[in-house]
Design goal:
alpha+beta; nine-stranded antiparallel sheet
Length: 346
């Protein structure tokens, strides 16, 4: 789920899964007895096909809200995407070891949220792990790096070498070769902003679906809640583990099935443990449901690294946060507040 890196066939598969599991996205314009209108639009942004759905009493209001939502995604992408050389975070990476870079309030917020997620997940979430991810290269041809290669990038991983100066509005990476990538939290953060924009335009309900990161508000025109299907981590795309209804909530999933390679019967995936720089092995997938997209998106990867026991304990300790963890053995763990809401597939 790293839209700051590059889209791929997996993005298309995620899109197809969304079409299967989010039935409310079937038509571009829909009306019901409530007289509300539902408008859905999709565009290729942030390295994936994104969907923005808006519900409003009038068609023009719904269309304007969806258009404003898509414009907001484009705006944030230009600020944060490290595949855009002129983005602020690209400039922060380019200036690593040399000087601080002025960043927008949005980038400062997402960087601060990233550091907070790192603390909550005991270092499991780490926006500086990019050099190690590049060494593994599982998103492209895939290779197993040597211990020597991983040791070479290890000095670049420490979050202590990221300096955020809120008063000056700058971000600084202390060592040349460091890079930050907020792909593990940026889509959730963006979804929160998009929902705010759409509501200001008059939308009474809607969904923002940025690959596997989804934020909902309100209800569908028929007053039904939005339904989300959790992908089964060991079955073909579109086969769900369970389904849950969402209202004014965000959901995000991290899994070892999203980008991986198989060698000698061993699965090597893209979610690395920052402590070992090896793929985290405790879970097959982690789904987090929270009030805010930035929380759901930031927690799922960190909890995946923490492992099922510590991860579920963290979920239970946080207010307005629920989760589903599939451990390495395929057992499904469900948080206490979610057991009555989650409908597991037989």
């Amino acid at each position: 789920m790293d839209w700051l890196r590059r889209g791929s066939l997996s993005s298309f598969k995620v899109w197809f899964f969304l079409m299967l599991t989010l039935g409310f996205l079937c038509s571009s314009v829909s009306e019901s007895h409530s007289n509300d209108v539902l408008i859905k639009r999709s565009q290729y942004l942030m390295g994936t096909l994104v969907f923005v759905t808006g519900v409003a009493p009038e068609e023009k209001v719904a269309k304007d809200a969806v258009a404003a939502g898509l414009a907001e995604i484009r705006r944030i992408e230009k600020l944060m995407s490290t595949w855009i050389p002129t983005s602020e975070l690209s400039k922060v990476n380019a200036a690593a070891g040399r000087h601080p870079v002025k960043v927008s309030s949005e980038n400062m917020e997402v960087l601060k949220a990233s550091m907070h997620m790192a603390v909550l997940t005991e270092g499991g979430f780490n926006i500086a792990v990019g050099p190690a991810v590049d060494a593994w290269n599982v998103s492209r041809e895939g290779r197993i790096p040597s211990d020597k290669e991983l040791d070479a990038v290890r000095p670049f991983i420490s979050l202590e070498n990221i300096v955020l100066d809120e008063q000056a509005g700058t971000a600084y990476l202390k060592h040349a070769g460091m890079q930050v990538d907020v792909g593990g939290i940026g889509k959730g953060y963006t979804a929160d902003l998009v929902v705010d924009v759409m509501q200001k335009e008059g939308a009474t309900a809607g969904v923002v679906a940025l690959s596997g990161d989804i934020k909902t508000f309100g209800r569908m025109p028929d007053q039904e809640r939005f339904v989300f299907g959790i992908q089964h981590p060991r079955k073909e795309q579109g086969h769900t583990l369970g389904r849950i209804e969402l209202e004014n909530e965000a959901v995000s999933t991290a899994g070892d099935y999203q980008r991986f390679m198989m060698k000698d019967g061993i699965r090597y995936h893209h979610i690395l443990d920052p402590a070992t720089l090896q793929p985290a092995r405790g879970s097959q997938s982690v789904t987090v449901i929270a009030k805010d997209g930035v929380m759901a998106d930031g927690l799922d990867t960190g909890i995946f690294v923490m492992g099922p026991e510590k991860g579920m304990a963290l979920i239970e300790s946080l207010s307005d946060v629920e989760g589903v963890i599939v451990n390495a053995q395929g057992e499904v763990l469900v948080s206490s507040g979610l057991k009555s809401r989650l409908k597991l597939e037989p």
